[in-house]
Write a structure and sequence with these properties.
461 residues; 15 helices; alpha/beta; 43% helix; Amidase signature (AS) enzymes; 13% strand; eleven-stranded mixed β-sheet
Length: 461
């Protein structure tokens, strides 16, 4: 019999709705799983067992009374630990915020809680979400490999079955990189699609909040709950949310898919093999696949770095002056590097974002989506990082960030979906990029990738 912790959110929600399982039973199964394996994974910073079980009991009582809140009613989730939950420790992975307990809920959590979700706890991350690799967490597919970053705990928890779904944030690839490394689905929505009220920022003109799940259908379901205008976030969009779940059932026949030439080089052979096999299956399903060139995309990573450096420094400047010694060395050095970026470089980088977006939208004028590998290689071995952190970080930039950063600069939606496992049983992935606010098209293509790939073998943990 399938374990409760192996079920997708869609499957779990159906069992809970039909009362074939209780939320207390499901939540306890996840808490038991956390107790059994998270000492190896390191996916959680805070586990909120009493809070979760109390919410599960309320969910069961409401279900018994016929008050059903929706597909997340009674479903246990985790939150990256820079998302506010009233009265709960929120550290952003830093000693700077030790003891901090916010006085209100982030909108993204409030919407999930209003939908009946239970909260298992707060998930591990790079300090203040700054950085691409996280050595404090372990990859569920190979504990001697890293799960990426900065939403490392979110990716590890979803793939490692210590949460049914999770929320991450993405400024340079922090949802998509751990999704690619850990073999789960990660969506960076269009900038402004999901409220950032109550979420500790990194670079406010690029930060996105989004779902990390085991299936494309679950990601669509989660976005359906968390998307939408929020009066508490002046940057949140009034663009109406579409029926994202319905899009997963439409198939790809007749769709035009562009393979990005500038993101097709220096790919590990097995990652490339799985990527091309995925493209062939999409072609077999009736999609038209061809190559597109977007030369300005090559400066997207540089632009993302400049904007992040300046905006992160602006947020942290007072704390750096008052609590400098509390920052970890890696985070502090990155923040202080922002002091060396001239204002003219920041202004030019912001102008450059519009140039890149215009070029990408030109490619999308006769294509429905654009695609690339999610990363050039599989997860980084922890030993490589321990032996030479700088070399491993440089490899991370080359193998991971160059695929993700350009689309944070443009603000477009991008979805990472596993394409399969390599011969050494590590996940590889595809990244699907679309027009602003057209997440539905990403789910449509992502669901076809998933359906034609077949079930992904779970991690051996």
């Amino acid at each position: 019999m399938t374990q409760l912790t192996d079920l997708s959110v869609v499957e779990l929600g159906e069992r809970l709705r039909r009362r074939e399982a209780s939320s207390v039973e499901v939540t306890q199964a996840y808490l038991d799983r956390i107790a059994a394996v998270d000492g190896q994974l390191g996916s959680y910073l805070t586990v909120t067992a009493d809070f979760a079980l109390a919410a599960a009991k309320r969910a069961d009582a409401e279900a018994a009374a016929g008050a059903w809140r929706g597909p997340f009613h009674g479903v246990p989730v985790g939150l990256k630990d820079l998302i506010y939950v009233k009265g709960m420790p929120t550290t952003a992975g830093s000693r700077v915020l030790a003891g901090f307990r916010p006085g209100y809920d982030a909108t993204v959590w409030k919407r999930l809680a209003d939908g009946g979700a239970t909260l298992l706890g707060k998930l591990n991350l790079n300090e203040f979400a700054y950085g691409g690799l996280n050595a404090a967490c372990h990859n569920p597919y190979a504990l001697d490999h890293l799960p990426g970053g900065s939403s490392a705990g979110s990716g590890a928890a979803v793939a490692g079955r210590t949460a049914a779904a999770a929320i991450g944030t993405d400024t340079s690839g922090s949802i998509r990189i751990p999704a690619a490394a850990c073999g789960c689905v990660g969506l960076k929505p269009t900038w402004s699609r999901v409220s950032r009220h109550g979420v500790i920022p990194l670079a406010q003109s690029m930060d996105c909040v989004g779902p990390m799940t085991r299936t494309v259908g679950d990601a669509a379901l989660m976005l359906q709950v968390i998307a939408g205008y929020d009066p508490d976030d002046s940057t949140s969009s009034r663009e109406p949310a579409r029926d994202f779940v319905a899009a997963t059932r439409l198939g790809v026949k007749g769709l035009r898919i562009g393979v990005i030439r500038e993101l097709s080089d220096r790919i590990a052979p097995e990652v490339d093999r799985l990527f091309k096999a995925t493209l062939q299956r999409l072609t077999d399903q009736g999609a038209r696949v061809d190559e597109v060139s977007i030369p300005p995309l090559e400066i997207g990573a540089l632009i993302n770095n400049i904007v992040t450096s300046v905006e992160a420094l602006e947020y942290h400047q007072t704390w750096l002056a008052e609590r400098r010694a509390l920052y970890g060395a890696d985070c502090r050095v990155q923040l202080e590097a922002g002091m060396m970026v001239p204002a003219t470089a920041y202004v030019r980088a912001q102008r450059g974002r519009a140039r890149i977006l215009a070029s990408v939208l030109k490619a999308l004028a006769d294509h429905d989506v654009l695609v690339s590998p999610g990363s050039a290689a599989t997860a980084t071995p922890a030993a490589d990082f321990a032996r030479d952190p700088k070399a491993a970080a440089d490899a991370g930039y080359r193998d991971m960030l160059r695929f993700s950063q350009p689309f944070d600069a443009t603000g477009q939606p991008a979805l990472t979906v596993p394409t399969g496992l390599t011969s050494d049983r590590l996940p590889a992935s595809i990244q699907i990029v679309g027009r602003p606010f057209d997440e539905a098209m990403l789910f449509r293509v992502g669901a076809a990738v998933e359906a034609t790939r077949g079930p992904l073998e779970p991690p051996p943990l």
